[in-house]
Amino acid sequence: APSTPMTSSALASIKAPAAALRAPAAVSRARGRVAVAPIRAVSAAAEGSALRQIVAEISGAADPAERVKKLIAMSAHLPALPDADRSIANRVMGCTAEAWVDVSLDANGRVAIRGASDAQITAGFAGLVARGLSGLEPGDVLNISDDVVADLGIGPSALPRSRANGFRNMLETVKKQCRLLLAEGGVTEPPFPSLVVTADGVEAVGSFARAQAEYLEPDADAVDALVAELEAKKIGIVAHFYMDPQVQGVLMAAARRYEHVFISDSLVMADAAVKMVREGGCESIAVLGVDFMSENVRAILDDAGLESAKVYRMAADDIGCSLAEAAQDKKYYDYLAEADGVENAVHVIYINTALDTKANANAVVPTITCTSSNVVQTVLTAAAQVPGVNVFYGPDTYMGGNLAELFTMMSTWSDEDVAAVHPAHTQSTIKDLLPRLRYFQDGTCMVHHMFGGDVCDAVRKYYGDAYQTAHFEVPGEMFKLAMEAKRERDMGVVGSTKNILDYVCEKIDEAVARNLPAGERLSFVLGTETGMVTSIVRAARAKLVAAKTAGVAGVEAEIVFPVSSDAIAPIAESESVALGGVAVVPGPAGGEGCSAEGGCASCPYMKMNSLDALMSVCAKIGTDAGEALLTPFEPKKYEAAKDGPSVAALGCVPILHMRDFQRDGALSDAFVEDITTRHAARRAAK
After folding, report:
1. Known catalytic residue: 321?
2. Rounded distance, CA 685 to CA 276, Å?
3. pTM for the structure as a whole
4. Which residues, listed in sequence order, are joined to residue 559 by a DSSP beta bridge?
5. In order along the chain (686 residues), what is the average pLDDT of each group of 10 residues?
6. Cα 564 off chain centre by
7. Which candidate in 95, 282, 445, 618 is catalytic?
8. Measured between alpha carbons, how far is 222 from 214 in angstroms, rounded to an integer?
9. Category of 648 on φ-ψ map: left (φ > 0), alpha (ψ -120 to 50) or beta
């Protein structure tokens, strides 16, 4: 199993022995809930509370219209909430109407609920919640299922999904406040650091957030110095989203003055570099990313006949990527050997891998590249076009597990809901696909690994009513949390970095369009690398400034950084205390990858791409002595082909299959033929 560059002839000679198929990993089942008709039964979770009797009274009415009247009448049981208590902390997010709920404890330690809403039906649901849950202990409230919304039996014609989702989030807001009341260690508010973005500026909460905010308005002298170097020496920059805030701030400001600065996810970095050299006249490309990204840029430039352009990394040392390296390990080639012995096998490989990895893989089994935003559609389309297809996904174990989890969820959905994800599928076809989906078990991104169970427990406890975002690479706990929010409350997104950015912007647009009189704050839990925050904050700020100019000034966006306890570092007792009484310091500021006051998910390799490193590289470009010093900064070059296509060209084949799919919405005929005939052809050749 080679881990070094290979020639095209060597690639073509790979023959992996057949092996017994790995059983798919066990995944838990999650029940999808969609109210498509009145439901008279009362949730088991509501047993033992006054809520049971109230819901039964409403659902027992003769028809949906009468049930709505009964629900609206419940507003008479809602204790008034004074204007002074109609705060952002009590605001119900995700509700189409203005709504607030406040939970406190009475003298006996029992729950007391007050609320207010400008909509009759929403006030009625708040009254139902207040009457049904007041008097319970906080822990009992946490056991109430949001099935009570469906149990009302009102149905989608009188209670559209958006309104029902608002009701569910009102119940979640009540639960969040109960969790705070039960919290130990004197915790009275959500503990994670955050940035609150408004039209007038950015407020940082927590030391890590303050470190992030510091560079949102970059130093003008630093921007001037960088632009001068880039223009004078014809340098282009391609950078990944996951840069630290200082360099991202400077790069974004520089991009407004110099067109050859490009920040994106990994997919299009090499394409941008080719355009900068071929059309923009750039003579050197600085790559701010991990090593496989700079190697891809070098290989694609060479394959495009642009060998004279120079490419530089930002460090002489390796800028690694645990995920890409996993796909170059012998374990991964053993995994591909399994696929080589299987009929109708297709290998779906994540884009964040090296070109020689993709070339090696495609020599063993028909391979298509995917991104975190299109992996679901890629797999489902393959299953639709190739009957009996056997899917081998890799190398990201979390993404593979999340695929299996998602398809397991879908296997319980209605055909209508499944078709909304992919029109060629039904509940039955998803069930049929599950046994034929395998995923690699030994590949993880060290950053997304930080989003484990303890982080999710804290997110559920303190941010259960927030918008949940998760990269498709995060561990299953974070994935399920975001999927639940998406499925049950329409307040979640799972996908790529760009999907997350677009989602935040979309929700801000919706809030601006609502233009609620009291304004509203949208809280987003950022379930991906913290380097994304610069792009998100800038995009959010631009929308809020435009909204204020148009007369809408009350919308705010809070970006929350969830934290892994694995990254907590003790400091002096005199310092500030967070999370369960454990004192912490900001990881990036203290030279660590992560900490509880700061940054749950900050890639130490990506942070090697600092502003100082960039300026040092730029200063050396253009002189013989300087460029001699930059020799260790050049990316690895793939071995040139002696005959036939280059390694870079072979590595691009799976990418081209993906681009065919992105363009046409279907796998190409040539790729489908390869999937369905290669195994038989090899068997015949033997």
Report:
1. no
2. 46
3. 0.69
4. 195, 524
5. 35 31 28 31 50 88 89 94 89 88 93 93 93 91 84 79 84 89 66 89 82 80 96 96 82 94 86 95 96 89 92 92 84 92 94 90 95 91 97 91 91 93 96 96 58 70 88 74 85 86 94 90 83 83 96 93 51 34 31 32 73 96 94 86 78 92 95 92 72
6. 16
7. 95
8. 14
9. alpha
